[in-house]
């Protein structure tokens, strides 16, 4: 076994794009990648929250709506050579069932949670393929592998993201691309606020009587960093639950 796997993670000389960089998980990802010497391109549509990230010359902050193809193209262009793409931005809706969710809510969820990661992959993969290496980490959810807790649109968007993740691994793995997803259960961030949710969704959420306590954003970020690192060199095409075992219930 190579001694390399025992070294602490370092991302020196690598550029990582993190979307949703000003959110609960995103800002921890920015901090942890910087602590390991990556150059970080921090992308979020929330300009005020982006401004609150620590001033750091190693972090390029770019305000953009990741569901807009033109804005994604601008970010990819400004980022330069990208070694690691972390698609973390997402939104949650009122968690409606298929007959409750509106067409507008459906499109909004799919645009942000699924089309945006596709747009970033579409933008960064050509450069990664030219260099013969690149890593994609998509932040999905347990709603990307199970049916019955989140709303129809969120569940479909995260299942789609897991599918995109596996397709990239299957089709481009032999050309140096690794593509994996993390599937968190609940995380202690602003996304936990479901006060506007349908009663049916609140009932479904309360069904988990032995539901584990929400994870800290740090506990999800550490798994993203593992998948982004050379320690995961042979991990490709997985949708890794980070859910304290809730899927096992
Ligand atoms: N919080 C949870 O319980 C939970 C559970 C499972 C999965 N996840 C996933 O974890 C990831 C991170 O979520 P979080 O909990 O940090 O949420 P969060 O709401 O704290 O952060 C999300 C960030 O994405 C940004 N964003 C949303 N839409 C955008 C757009 N169109 N363009 C650019 N930026 C946009 C927001 O401004 C925000 O800063 C998401 O993919 C989410 O689906 C969260």
Detailed description of the structure:
It is a single chain. With 249 residues, this protein is of the alpha/beta class. It has a single domain (12-241), classed as Rossmann fold (3-Layer(aba) Sandwich). Helix content is 39%, strand content 15%. The chain contains seven helices and seven strands; from the N terminus they run E-H-E-H-E-H-E-H-E-H-E-H-H-E. The chain has helices at 24-35, 47-51, 69-79, 103-131, 152-172, 199-206, 217-228; strands spanning 15-19, 39-44, 59-63, 84-87, 134-139, 177-184, 239-242. The chain has a seven-stranded parallel sheet with strand order 3-2-1-4-5-6-7, sandwiched between helices. Strand 2, helix 2 (47-51) and strand 3 form a beta-alpha-beta unit. Helix 4 runs parallel beside helix 5 (152-172). The radius of gyration is 17 Å and the shape is globular. The N and C termini lie far apart (36 Å). The mean pLDDT is 94. The structure holds nicotinamide-adenine-dinucleotide (NAD). The site of nicotinamide-adenine-dinucleotide (NAD) has 27 residues, from helix 1.
